[in-house]
Amino acid sequence: MTGRDQPEASPETLGDGPDPLGAVVRRTRVGMMVETLSRAFWPLGSFLAVFWAALAFGLPEILSRGELVLALALGVGGIAYFLVTGIRAVRWPSEADARARVDATLPGRPLAALRDTAALGAEDPGARAVWAAHIARMRRATLGARPVGPDPRLATRDPWALRLAALVALIAAAVFARGEGLVGVPAALAPGGGTAMATGPSFEGWAEPPGYTGRPTLYLPEVPADRPVSVPVGTRITLRAYGDLSRFELAQTVADVGLVPAGVPETDGPPPPPKPPALTEVAPGIAIAEFEVTRDGGVTLSQRGRTLGQWQFLMEPDQPPTIALSNPVERGPTGETRLGYRAEDDYGIAGARAEITLDLGRVDRRYGLAVDPVARPPLAVDLPLPMRGAGAEVSETLVEDFSKNPWAGLPVTLTLTAEDGLGQTGSSGPIATVLPGRRFYDPLAAALIEQRRDLLWSPENAPRVTRVLRAVTYRPEDVFDDPRAYLVVRVAIRELAVAEDNGDVPAMVEEVAEALWQAALQIEEGDLGDAKARLERAKERLSEALKNDASDEEIARLMDELRQATQDYMQQMAREAIERGDQQQAEAPPPGQTMTQNQIQELMDRIQELSEQGRKAEAEQLLSMLQQLLENMQMRMGQGGEGQGRDGPGQRTMQGLADTLREQQGLADESFDQLQREFREGRDGGDGSEPGQDQGEGKGGSRDLAERQEALRDLMEGMRRDLPGDAGEAAREALREAERDMGEARDRLNEGDTSGALDRQAGAIDRLREGMREIDEDMRRAEGGQRGQRGQGGREGAARAEGGDDPLGRPLGTRGGVGTDQNMLPGANSAARARDLLDEIRRRAGEFSRPPLELDYLRRLLDQF
């Protein structure tokens, strides 16, 4: 008899004490029970999910009472059928079934082996020992037993995946359905219906405020019926019903409800009596009603006497906007008008405008303003709004230049207007002010601007303006510094005189006024291309502003202009020194000249500070001192090159390049003159010759210029090949580019293309200057390296040898050189003093509270010593 045929062993056969696998078997058995229930009742669960989803999606609302009763009966019958079927399918697992499932997961099925007994060899000691070892091994295998979970797979029992479809319907109903499910069934079965709010899928509604309010849209089915809804005026109410439209009713709940059908035109006078809202069918089974809220009121949507939705609306009135000046009207540094305003609205500003009209009653009617002015429309300009949309409060500043307007500097009336999204407007009312304009400090420029204003004021002033302008230009050498401005004024006089003779002054007013404006600007600004002229102009303008008690803002602007002009002037002097070959003068101030850019800046800051404090006389004195300092610098820079040596290959190369640069500039000037002659001949008709045929004959012609350009290019090529070894690659490349531009300019001149040759000559000039700067930097770097090796450098060593001051204004000592009688060995006192100074430098360098700039300077001193 084998072990498999023996009766099941008792727990005692597995060992003494309680069964160690009892908990594992029990948990496995519970899982098997869950598995049995899921397989028996999954049809019931799927049917319940589909049935509840149908109720949640509004099945009671779309079915009649009889249809709903039949649907409920079918649902209950289905539930009973699947319940009984599930109960019959339940087969509870036994403990032996659970043990068998656990044993199947273990290697060798040890639980079954432990229930076996030996069939043979019970009397043989060896067979018993083998059997005992086998049993011990099986017991050790049971130590790895774990509970077996249930098998949830139902695919074999549900091949069509109906359970998954039911799950999807359940989730969709829970997320999207707004029906009441079983709760709404009693109300649907009641004979008279109910008065409870029903928010099923049979209708939808929205309250959409106007876009300018920025308010969100309300979804009406989510709004409680007992809570009034506050909405802005003009809010659009949209109700949409689905299904049999004969079952829906839409009525007003308040007699004076303020709901007006959308699209009804507005009329003057009292508003028309409200019309009852109605649903309009727009598609089969879909009806829509739209209204706009204009007063307090409400609406009710019902279905067969049962209230589906009821809402009360409280209208929020929209107040008109307000606008006012936030600051008085100001004039900007260059004459622009600065108009700061502040506007407010309960929802937002849609637009704002400023309107300027001449206040004739406050105008000083003298001279050219004595006659009646030409009627002009008001100046209207849109006020700026925030880029991201205007909010309830707007505070902005308009910056607009009205300097060319004939009302500039005259009394005007300013009116600000703001508009909101509803179209309502608010006004600041008339504000008396003066229209700002550009100030002209030059007396001649100011006189031209005044005549321009008189001419624009009225064409009747044309004879008077002509006489004044003729008087101004009678002796131009005593009045006009700029010949171009004089020519412009003379042309304006001639055009105005011709218009007077032809009786056509109004047609020429704008053209003459523009010419006078350009002439005044030319006189006021001067020649901006020349740094010295611009510096002189900036000093004159600042001096005039100080005398006329200009505003602090105007003084600050003129100071900035003077700073920039001074910087440009000093850079121009340095460039001129380089072009003359005076590198030492361009890089360091001459002996005795200790004024630095920082000192100039400090002096200008002091001038501005005094002007802001109202001490204009002291500011004018400092300005005169600054002018003297700049003139002294110019004189020293002009004399500094005298006597300077030209020794060494680097100096000779720089001198040769400077000469080449001057020759190239002169050649470019002659090419420009040639271009002007060609233009005049072409304008006068000429003789029909082609470009380059006759222009090449004689001195200054295109062919002669081309030959001179080629000679200059050859000279440039030779100097480029003989560059000293200190010259870097950047300098050599710049000179190669200059040589290439010279060759192209030669070719253009041979072809008669003078304009193209001018472009190439300008390029050659720029490349020459760039190459000279690069060579100069290379030479200074080379001198710095030699100074580190020998202990002294060329330029700085010479400066120290000569004594005087260094570029920072500090006194320079002298050092003994080769062949001098000076003792180069320091004495005892000098060595002790040097040690003390070094210790003090180290002490200060360790104080981290000192300014970073000072600490950096101290560290650099320690690096040197």
Features:
single chain; 865 residues; alpha+beta; six-stranded antiparallel β-sheet; five-stranded antiparallel β-sheet; 25 helices; 50% helix; extended; disordered N terminus
Describe it for me?
With 865 residues, the protein is of the alpha+beta class. Strands 1, 2, 4, 6, 7 and 8 form a 6-stranded antiparallel sheet that branches. Strands 14, 15, 17, 18 and 19 form a 5-stranded antiparallel sheet that branches. Helix 1 (22-56) crosses helix 7 (162-176), helix 12 packs antiparallel against helix 13 and helix 14 packs antiparallel against helix 15 (552-580). The radius of gyration is 51 Å and the shape is extended. The N and C termini lie far apart (111 Å).
- The number of distinct β-strands equals 19
What is the end-to-end distance? Answer: 111 Å
Mean pLDDT: 75
- Which geometry do the CA atoms define? extended
Q: Which regions have little confidence, pLDDT < 50, spanning 5+ residues?
A: 1-17, 192-201, 253-270, 579-594, 637-647, 685-700, 789-828
Beta-strand content bin: 5-15%
* Tally of DSSP helical segments: 25
**Percent of residues in helices:** 40-55%
Over all CA atoms, what is the radius of gyration? Answer: 51 Å
Largest sheet: 6 strands, antiparallel
The computed structural class is alpha+beta
